[in-house]
């Protein structure tokens, strides 16, 4: 009988834990009483002005337009990205400082190149060669 004692204790403890969890799930939570209405002594807020319902303005060129309902009113949102005019690309020698390649810190002098640095650096060597830079410049003009 002794070899069965630990097994019997384990089965008993497991069944009691299972029974306890089943009993805990059967109990329902009491519902809270409904909130009491609060007497408001302040005067009601003045009516808000509404915008005249005209035709929605078209989105700016190259932009997007979205319409949604906010507070029961239709709202039109126009958005666009401002155009970027960075000017002509600097020469390779100017960016590289006279070395044979452009590092990432040197590329930050020209924001468009800094943005495309990992794309231009095809071998992921951490620098851009003159051939890579010239190919990128000819592709972006």
Give your account of this protein's structure.
Helices cover 36% and strands 14% of the residues. A hairpin with a 2-residue loop joins strand 1 and strand 2 (73-79). The radius of gyration is 35 Å and the shape is flat. It contains six helices and four strands, in the order αββαβαααβα. The model has no long low-confidence stretch (mean pLDDT 78). Strands 1-2 form a two-stranded antiparallel ribbon. The protein has a two-stranded antiparallel ribbon with strand order 3-4. It has 141 residues and is of the alpha+beta class. It has a domain at 101-139.
Write the layout of secondary structure elements.
Blueprint: H1 4-26, E1 64-70, E2 73-79, H2 92-96, E3 101-103, H3 104-107, H4 111-115, H5 117-120, E4 127-129, H6 130-139
Antiparallel strand pairs: 1-2, 3-4
User: Mean of the pLDDT scores?
Assistant: 78
Low-confidence stretches: none
Order of helices and strands: HEEHEHHHEH
**Beta-strand share of residues:** 5-15%
Helical residues, percent: 25-40%
Distance separating the two termini: 90 Å
Q: Tally of extended strands?
A: 4
| Rg over C-alpha atoms, rounded to the nearest angstrom | 35 Å
Secondary-structure-derived class = alpha+beta
Q: Describe the biggest sheet?
A: 2 strands, antiparallel
Q: Please give the count of helices.
A: 6
Shape: flat
Multimeric state: single chain
Record the strand order, biggest sheet. 1-2
Task: Put the structure in a nutshell.
With 141 residues, this protein is an alpha+beta fold. The chain is 36% helix and 14% strand.
């Amino acid at each position: 009988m002794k070899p069965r004692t630990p097994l019997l204790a384990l089965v008993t403890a497991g069944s009691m834990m299972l029974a306890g969890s089943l009993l805990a799930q059967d109990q329902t939570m009491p519902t809270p009483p409904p909130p009491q209405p609060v007497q408001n002594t302040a005067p009601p807020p003045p009516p808000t002005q509404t915008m005249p319902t005209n035709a929605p303005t078209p989105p700016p060129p190259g932009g997007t337009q979205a319409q949604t309902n906010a507070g029961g009113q239709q709202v039109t949102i126009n958005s666009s990205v401002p155009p970027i005019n960075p000017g002509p690309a600097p020469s390779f020698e100017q960016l590289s400082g006279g070395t044979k390649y452009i590092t990432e810190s040197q590329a930050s002098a020209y924001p468009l190149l800094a943005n495309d640095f990992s794309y231009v650096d095809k071998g992921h060597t951490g620098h851009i060669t003159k051939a890579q830079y010239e190919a990128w410049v000819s592709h972006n003009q």
